[in-house]
């Protein structure tokens, strides 16, 4: 019976027309392949599911512009506060807007918004909030921060005049710097109906543009520079960049109640990102080179100088059950999240041909069998692995085979690989994949219970 109801719900959901309520500008970092779209989606989806109970309403994404996915619509079923909380955590989001209205001119976009803005703004914002309305032209072929062109001030003034019925209901003062209501009008090419990527010609796009009226209401994690390797006392020879570390912590769904283990912690970048996102979480790092290459005193000072609670750092090899027992002192029932960027092929000892992902799986199985689980049955495992190919679309099965992780191992560990997989191209010959594992038991998917 419940199965049928679920099926009906699913069908209803997929038949509903896509109505975007938000627009996100992703962080570009100059090179779109560096931050793959799968990682962006995975990070924001994970952050949103932390905000929602039950965690079953995934957002949907669609492109705003032809030829780039740096700007996307997001349809999300929760509240604006949930959305902004999630965006604010994410390293791959630059900023997010609420979609208030759309149309074929500034004025139709503004008049189509009149029904939505009363619910989008608080009474205080409408009666006394300061505001500004800026226009941006997205019809060029530009990327990153330069995606939009500024408009001639005459055009911007015309936009405001056209939107007069809308702006008349805002009673607060106009303020150009940091207004309470940062309103934007975007001019967009007539995508997607008239154009596809191949035939897109920016000069055609000058005809029949679309107009959106938006409210900018939050920014992505905006303090990444504070975590830059060159601002830290302790860095290893191959430090994890902040954007990758924050994305990992987010897809691991780190929150204030989490206990987090990095079994190959190095200078503890993953734990630093976790502590920055959720200062009450408990972090534990194991490092074989502890107090030799990695100076634990310096690692701790990288936390304390940022007012973050320091991790518990243990020196040793995580494959040794005794060191894991010491780690579990901080998480007697097992960890909620294991994060790792293991040193594949960078071991100084030549006799070491270990496969860190296979090793992590074996640790999880060994401790589970011993009745002292390392990872909780609800826990997530997030690992970077290298993948020697230019091909960025590879199947999970191929990847696990290449990393010597069998189906039997996965089932014994009680985990399954989440797809699609984010492939980050590091250079021409090597990519790195972010693998996310979640419980394979029906903890989340309760259809059969
Ligand atoms: C504003 O609203 C008035 C009254 O509803 C209407 O007559 C007018 O055309 C509207 N102006 C614009 C620019 O939409
Ligand atoms: C986590 O804890 C910090 C500091 O105690 C607090 O500021 C923050 O609001 C908490 N986050 C959540 C989501 O509860
Ligand atoms: C670790 O760093 C601290 C502070 O920089 C220094 O005083 C200490 O001697 C270092 N420890 C080792 C083992 O190198
Ligand atoms: C790609 O990166 C790997 C790892 O950093 C390095 O060993 C390799 O030499 C690089 N290859 C090229 C072609 O730059």
Give the strand content: 15-25%
Q: Indicate the CATH topology of the largest domain.
A: Rossmann fold
What is the average per-residue confidence, as pLDDT, rounded to a whole number? 83
Number of helices: 15
Task: Tell me the Rg in angstroms.
Answer: 24 Å
Poorly predicted runs are 1-18, 193-197, 346-351, 444-449
The CATH architecture assignment of the largest domain turns out to be: 3-Layer(aba) Sandwich
Percent helix: 25-40%
In short:
This protein has 449 residues and is an alpha/beta fold.
Describe the structure in your own words.
Helix content is 31%, strand content 22%. It is α/β, with parallel strands linked by helices and 449 residues long. It has 2 domains: 204 residues, VC0802-like; 214 residues, Rossmann fold, CATH 3.40.50. The strands form 2 sheets. Strands 2-3-1-4-8-7-5-6 form an 8-stranded mixed sheet. Strands 9, 10, 11, 12, 13, 14, 15 and 16 form an 8-stranded mixed sheet that branches. The protein is elongated and about 70 Å long. One 2-acetamido-2-deoxy-beta-D-glucopyranose (NAG) binds next to loops. The site of one 2-acetamido-2-deoxy-beta-D-glucopyranose has 4 residues, from helix 11.
Structure characteristics:
Rossmann fold; disordered C terminus; alpha/beta; 22% strand; VC0802-like; eight-stranded mixed β-sheet; binds 2-acetamido-2-deoxy-beta-D-glucopyranose; 2 domains; disordered N terminus; 449 residues
